[in-house]
Structures are given as C-alpha cells and as structure tokens.
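Project standup — Tuesday

K.O.: blocked on the structure for the chain from last sprint. Re-posting the sequence here as requested.
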Amino acid sequence: MQCPYCGSDKLKVLDTTDIKNGIRRRRECQSCGERFTTYERSLATTPVLIKENGNREEFDREKLKRGIWNACAKRPIPAAEIDRLAMRVEAYLQSLGRSEVSESVRSEIDKLLAEQADDRSASEPVVVIRKEAKTAPDNGFSPTQDNLRLL
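H.V.: unblocked you, prediction finished:
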C-alpha cells in the first residue's frame, strides 16, 4: 500500500476498527505526515442464480431472509436464527466456487435449511401439499390429484 498523497510506502497503522462489511484502518504516512482511512473488505462473490425460466438473478440475502421469515411466520424461530440460516446458505453458494448456479441447487439448500429450521421439527411432522398441474374437478381441489408428502 502507498500513501495517496506522496506515494511513499512507509505507512503506520494508527487505529483498526471492525465494521459491518470489513475493517476500517486509520493510517499515517511516515514521509509526509498525512493521515488517511482505508477500508478492507472480503471479495468473496456469490454466484448468479439461474432461474427455472432461464433468467439470471443475483443472489439477494435479504430476499432469502424474507422467504425464510414468511415460511417460518407461525413457528417460534428467532430472527437471529433466520439471519444465521441466510448466512449459511450464502456461504454454501460461495463454497461451490462457481460463477453461476442453476435452480437444481435449491434442493440442497432446502436440505440445509430443513436441518437448521428448529429443534422441534423432528417431533412434529409437517405435511406439504403440492397441487399438480392437472385438470381439477369442479371444486378445484381433490386429494387424489394432490401430491402429499410427510416430512
């Protein structure tokens, strides 16, 4: 690193502070005496998600947290746990080391989330109802046409 004022590489770190996205350092040049601030951030990138329809979308941790929050709205899961889940999903996507990830990774992410959801999930079975895209009878819903799966 060089001084932005004189170009010297004789620098002294005066203060180091952890901030939300990295580290902030106050530095002083030993040659000219000028002080300046530098910010250090991690360059870990999250891959672009390829949706089922072929569209590409940047990973958005806040969007994931909203989805988890909505899915867990009636469950006693604290907000801090939802933040940890979102961070684990982001770390998992980064660990793949790819620039693009298809929607097929979603099942692996779902498994990761299911493992972490809450401690009572093993003792409380959950039923997921998925409606198939077949023609439904007059009332629009038929248990024979629905795909029931006990988790």
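K.O.: great, moving the ticket to review. Confidence is low (pLDDT under 50) at residues 131-151. The longest strand covers residues 11-19.
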